[in-house]
TrEMBL record:
Residues involved in S-adenosyl-L-methionine binding: C257, A258, G259, P260, G261, G262, K263, E282, D308, D325
PROSITE patterns: NOL1_NOP2_SUN (PS01153), SAM_MT_RSMB_NOP (PS51686)
Top-level taxonomic group: Bacteria
Pfam families in alphabetical order: Methyltr_RsmB-F, NusB
Gene3D superfamilies linked to this entry: NusB-like, Vaccinia Virus protein VP39
Protein name stated in the entry: Ribosomal RNA small subunit methyltransferase B
């Protein structure tokens, strides 16, 4: 029922799995192994939706669009249990059929039983051999069905890999997108240390640990707000800005797109350790409130401003370090946001790229000459990474691109699509596919 309600919330209310699931687990009082099962059932079903729909289409004598949506959601849940989880066939069938009976009716339950019995006649590999397009003839369609990504996403990720000389790693990346990520915690400097947290130290960030199991909310440091849940790639973004070489003073830091506050909290601790302060800006009021909550009790916080980062009420040329963690397609975080791949479209890129260009331009105006801007996206798509940075470099005579490689010597195979940039990958580094570019303001802009 929890997994079914997650799918319904995603479908009806455009909910995010990672936000709606905890509330449903509490509502149904699930914890431990039951919570883990419900999480995998919901997230795994959403990740593999395209694959399962192709299997179901082969088992149903009508187009899927003519199947009642509640029944289709249940069939997807049953298919995930049958083809990707260690659930006995009889249990997967009976629980799914019972769910359909209670939510829709006996006639729909009989239909679900018949369909799932057809699904259960062979394993996933056999189904893929039967229904997947030939890879030699149509590699995009093949990879899209086998790895359950939209065709345009497969193409965009392939182009991003090709730009760093790794075109042959498309399958590995798509496979990694379908593996549930481990929970990674971050210590917030000045308030906690990595030694205070359970789990194995992260290989690249000096502030993180990978939690072996359990609810991160039950970790005392997380519950107290002195540590948080944060992907290692996001930690490296904050660290990259903090460790960048700077000319002159180092007192005023700015997070221009701060919501929901994880990077701000790490930056605030790093800033306070040097006697600097962090100002956070976030446009959406509800996300601004999340930033304020993440920063509550932290030293080195100048405040949280609810404002549009493209035209914030701030004085130009006053900040020493600026982070632009720009809104993006999120195609680098498909492991943890399984529904994102089905929500985004190529048309979204035009709007997002325009916003990213304006945010980066705003950041470059706000930083002082000699100061640095770290531009980051949770997407490897070239339009959002290479092209945005290249546009700023081409249109401004007061900006130079700095080399991030020396700061990331401990991270193998992370060269980005522009010299000096960094691109992290789920299949190589076990992180979200974060892109990082460091720019220095060299002087006053040419307004001609």
């Amino acid at each position: 029922m929890v997994a079914f309600e997650v799918l319904r919330a995603v479908r009806v209310a455009d909910a995010y799995t990672n936000l709606v699931l905890p509330a449903l687990l509490r509502k149904h009082q699930l914890s431990g192994r039951d919570a883990g099962f419900a999480t995998e059932l919901a997230a795994g079903t959403l990740r593999r939706r395209a694959t399962y729909d192709a299997v179901l289409a082969a088992c149903i004598d009508r187009p899927l669009r003519k199947v009642e949506v509640k029944v289709l959601d249940a069939l997807r849940l049953g298919t995930h249990q049958l083809l990707a989880m260690r659930v006995p066939q009889h249990a997967a069938l009976s629980t799914t059929v019972d769910l359909v009976r209670s939510e829709v009716g006996p006639g729909a339950a009989g239909f679900a039983n018949a369909v799932l019995r057809k699904v259960s006649r062979q394993d996933l590999d056999a189904w893929l051999a039967e229904i997947a397009p030939d890879r030699d003839t149509d590699p995009l369609a093949h990879d899209a069905l086998v790895h359950s990504h939209p065709v345009w996403v497969v193409e965009a990720l392939g182009e991003a890999l090709d730009a760093v000389g790794a075109a042959d790693e498309v399958g590995a990346l798509l496979t990694a997108d379908n593996v549930a990520p481990s929970v990674t915690l971050v210590a917030r400097p000045g308030r906690s240390s990595r030694d205070d947290l359970p789990g194995e130290p992260t290989p690249f960030s000096p502030y993180g640990v990978v939690l072996a199991s359990g609810d991160p909310g039950q970790v005392r440091a997380v519950a107290d707000g002195v540590a948080g849940v944060q992907d290692e790639g996001s930690q490296l973004v904050a660290v990259a800005l903090a460790e960048a070489a700077l000319e002159g003073r180092d007192e005023e830091w700015l997070d221009l797109c701060a919501g929901p506050g994880g990077k701000s909290a790490l930056l605030a601790g790093l800033a306070a350790g040097r006697g600097a302060g962090l100002l956070a800006v976030e446009k959406a009021p509800h996300r601004s409130a999340l930033v304020a909550r993440a920063l509550a009790g932290a030293d080195g916080v100048r405040g949280v401003v609810t404002a549009d980062g493209t035209r914030p009420p701030l004085v130009a040329g006053t900040f020493d370090r600026v982070l632009v963690d720009a809104p993006c397609t999120g195609l680098g975080a498909l492991r943890r946001r399984p529904e994102s791949r089905w929500r985004r479209s190529p048309q979204d890129l035009e709007v997002l790229v325009d916003l990213q260009q304006r945010l980066l331009a705003s950041a470059l105006d706000l930083v002082r000459p000699g100061g640095v801007v770290l531009y980051a996206t949770c997407s490897p798509v070239l339009a959002e990474t290479r092209d945005v940075v290249a546009q700023a470099l081409a249109t401004r005579g007061d900006v130079e691109l700095l080399d991030l490689a020396p700061q990331h010597a401990q991270v193998p195979d992370c060269a980005g699509p522009l010299p000096g940039t960094v691109q992290l990958w789920p299949h190589r580094h076990g992180t979200d596919a974060m892109f990082l570019a460091l720019l220095r303001r060299t002087g006053e802009p040419d307004r001609d």
